[in-house]
Design a protein that fits this description.
Radius of gyration: 23 Å
Number of domains: 2
CATH topology of the largest domain: D-Maltodextrin-Binding Protein, domain 2
Helix content: 40-55%
Strand order of the largest sheet: 2-1-3-14-6
Shape: globular
Number of helices: 18
Number of strands: 15
Distance between the termini: 56 Å
Length: 449
């Protein structure tokens, strides 16, 4: 039963028992989060803080959290199906990079189009950083409110690097790709059955391949996926160098776990490899620190504060990175959007804005500190997140805000998989990528360098 029909039914019942009708509205909120499982802190925050406080402040509104435990891509597929049929949750967690393709596909509407002009009067907009705003902005309209942003780095097992004889293992900072490979080779020589380095690849890991793998190498060559004129780069020295790096790691020297890149649960396997000391160098986002490795989680690293470190991701060579940088990183971000077909747009907006007020975000920070979207909400008691965000955010870049990005990203994942699996050479994989992306965006929107 829709919220409006349910409200009418409640009103009729109330009219027979009381002097006036009593209206009730039921809201549903969905995120990829499960208490005790994936993104447990998010689920705990919504269940234990957001819902009780919102319901107490809004009598007659009921809120239910749908805990989704599948992969990111599965939630995206479900939301696309739901939004296309007028079904689904009223409020949903959403990765900002998906907004352009959903908008162009008619699956998402701007917040003010769904809930009305009062959206633009929300005082919280003034306290969002420009970078955070951009995460949920498309064609100058907000389609959601960002929850936070992130940065990417190399996580290290300091204990293993030290055992392998890597100099300054506690503060190890590579300045080139060769420095990374040399450290991995030392670990491999010490532990022949290990897979010292993890650079995400393959289709199964989805956007984690593109963001935690391909981008981090490509930016180190000085290139991005688009050129300065906004054309998709489909053939270039940077792409070839990136693919050859994958080939070195997974095919030629077997420094990485090639099979893990091809498995449905490959990302979890990469987490387990790091936890168990099979992998000593793992390129990931700050999500890995705050959600994957804490004490009590499935992939918790024993004695984490002593054995686990981090390093900036170096360019291929000093000064060769994007914008001439010595080190590179990339940031994404998630937030929450409104279902364009919600039966209760005003109430859904009230919930969305309520959960992004400082009081609720501070409650979330108490459960799981993270880099916030709001400038007036600090990271509490987390020297790691404070240090990494302050160091890496000035170096960061972002994915292009383009409706074709999701489809191009899928081709990037296929390209890396074909190299890691040994199916194609880097040159062959790049040629296939060029053909596929040209078909998606049109030859006039591509360039070869």
């Amino acid at each position: 039963m829709s919220n409006r029909l349910r409200a009418l039914a409640f009103g009729l019942v109330g009219a027979t028992a009381m002097a006036g009708p009593v209206f009730a509205v039921d809201l549903e909120i969905t995120c990829r989060c499960v208490i005790g499982g994936v993104n447990s802190g998010t689920a705990q925050w919504i269940e234990e803080s957001v819902i009780p406080a919102f319901v107490a402040a809004n009598p007659g509104v009921n809120v239910k959290l749908n805990q989704f435990g599948g992969e990111d891509a599965q939630l995206t597929q479900q939301l696309a199906l739901d939004f296309s049929t007028g079904a689904g949750p009223d409020v949903s967690a959403f990765d900002g990079f998906l907004i352009p393709s959903f908008v162009e596909g008619g699956l998402l509407k701007s917040l003010d189009e769904v809930a009305g002009p009062e959206v633009n009067d929300w005082t919280g907009w003034a306290n969002l950083s420009d970078g955070s705003k951009a995460l949920m902005l498309y064609q100058d309209k907000f389609y959601g409110i960002p929850l936070g942003t992130d940065v990417r780095m190399i996580y290290t097992r300091k204990d293993i690097l030290a055992e392998a004889g890597v100099e300054n293992a506690d503060t190890w900072q590579p300045t080139s790709w060769n420095d990374i490979l040399d450290a991995a080779r030392k670990v491999k020589a010490l532990k022949p059955d290990s897979f010292p380095i993890q650079l995400n690849a393959g289709v199964a890991m989805g956007e984690a391949t593109t963001m935690q793998g391909y981008w981090l190498a490509l930016l180190g060559t000085g290139e991005a996926v688009k050129d300065a004129d906004g054309k998709w780069i489909v053939s270039s020295p940077g792409i070839l160098d990136t693919l050859n790096l994958y080939k070195t790691i997974y095919v030629d020297e077997k420094l990485g776990d090639a099979r893990a890149q091809l498995l449905a649960d490959g990302r979890n396997r990469s987490f387990a490899n790091f936890r168990d000391g099979v992998t000593a160098l793992l390129l990931e986002g700050d999500y890995f620190y705050r959600s994957v490795t804490p004490e009590g989680s499935e992939f918790a690293v024993a004695d984490r504060d002593n054995v686990m470190g981090w390093a900036k991701i170096p360019a291929q060579e000093p000064g060769k990175g994007i914008r001439g940088q010595d080190f590179v990183t990339i940031s994404g971000g998630t937030g929450f959007v409104l279902n364009p077909a919600t039966d209760a747009p005003k109430e859904a907006w009230a919930l969305l804005s309520f959960m992004n007020e400082p009081a609720q975000l501070e409650a979330f920070q108490a459960i799981q500190p993270r880099i916030t979207a709001r400038t007036d909400v600090a990271i509490p008691n987390s020297p790691f997140l404070t240090e990494t965000s302050q160091t890496l955010l000035p170096l960061t870049t972002a994915r292009p805000n383009d409706p074709d990005y999701n489809a191009v990203s899928a081709e990037i994942q296929r390209m890396t998989e074909s190299v890691v699996s040994g199916e194609l050479s880097p040159e062959e994989a790049m040629a296939q990528y060029k053909a596929s992306v040209t078909k998606i965006v049109g030859e006039e929107n591509t360039v070869s360098l």
